[in-house]
From TrEMBL:
Superkingdom field: Bacteria
Native source organism of the sequence: Fusobacterium nucleatum subsp. polymorphum (Fusobacterium polymorphum)
Gene3D superfamilies: HAD superfamily/HAD-like
UniProt name for this protein: HAD family hydrolase
InterPro entries: HAD-like_hydrolase_sf, HAD-like_sf, HAD-SF_hydro_IA, HAD_2, HAD_sf
C-alpha cells in the first residue's frame, strides 16, 4: 500500500497564504508559514502509516523550497516529495502522481491519493489510483463531492478510519 497526499489544505491549513501563493510571492509566503496549522490528527495518521511501513509521498503544485519549509516547520514525517519543478505537467494532469508512483511507490499495490481540489481527484483518476476527496480543506466542497472520487472524507478522522480499514488487510 502507498499513500499520496496533497499538501496545502489537505495536511495543513495554508489558506491565509492562498493569494500570496497564487501570485507566487514566495518570500512573503515563507513569512506566514508559522501562522499555518496542521489539521487535527494529521501527525497521528502519518505516524500510524509510518509505523506500518506504508510508503508516503507529498505531491504538490508548489515549489520544493516551500514544501520543505512547511514540512520541516510542522515536523511532517514525509521525506518523499514531488513538487512543481519535478514535472513538466501539473495537476490535473496525472504526471505528478505517476512520477510519485514510479519513484517512491510500488504500482502493484493499492495506492490512495488524498486531495482537497478537483485537480487532485482528476490527476489521481487518470493515474488509475484510488482518489480520496478531502472536504475539510476544500474551498469548493460541492465540486469535490461531485468529482466521482473513489472515497469522500469529511474530516481527517474519516481519512484515518479509511486508512485503518485498508491497512488491516495487508
Amino acid at each position: 500500500m502507498g499513500v499520496i497526499f496533497d499538501l496545502d489544505n489537505t495536511l495543513i491549513n495554508s489558506s491565509i497564504a492562498s493569494q500570496l501563493r497564487k501570485k507566487r510571492l514566495w518570500e512573503e509566503v515563507y513569512k506566514v508559514i508559522p501562522n499555518f496549522f496542521l489539521y487535527d490528527d494529521i501527525l497521528e495518521i502519518l505516524n500510524f502509516l509510518n509505523n506500518k511501513n506504508i510508503e508516503l509521498v507529498i505531491v504538490t503544485s508548489s515549489p520544493r523550497s516551500y514544501c520543505k519549509k512547511v514540512t520541516e516547520h510542522f515536523n511532517i514525517p514525509i521525506n518523499n516529495l514531488i513538487c512543481y519543478h519535478d514535472t513538466i505537467n501539473h495537476k490535473p494532469n496525472p504526471e505528478p502522481i505517476i512520477k510519485a508512483i514510479e519513484k517512491y511507490l510500488n504500482s502493484e499495490k493499492m495506492i490512495f491519493s488524498f486531495g482537497d481540489d478537483i485537480k487532485d481527484i482528476e490527476a489521481s483518476k487518470q493515474a488509475k489510483v484510488d482518489s480520496v476527496a478531502c472536504l475539510w480543506g476544500s474551498t469548493n466542497q460541492e465540486i469535490l463531492k461531485n468529482s466521482n472520487a473513489n472515497f469522500i472524507c469529511k474530516t481527517p478522522q474519516d481519512m484515518f478510519r479509511l486508512l485503518k480499514e485498508h491497512v488491516e488487510f495487508l
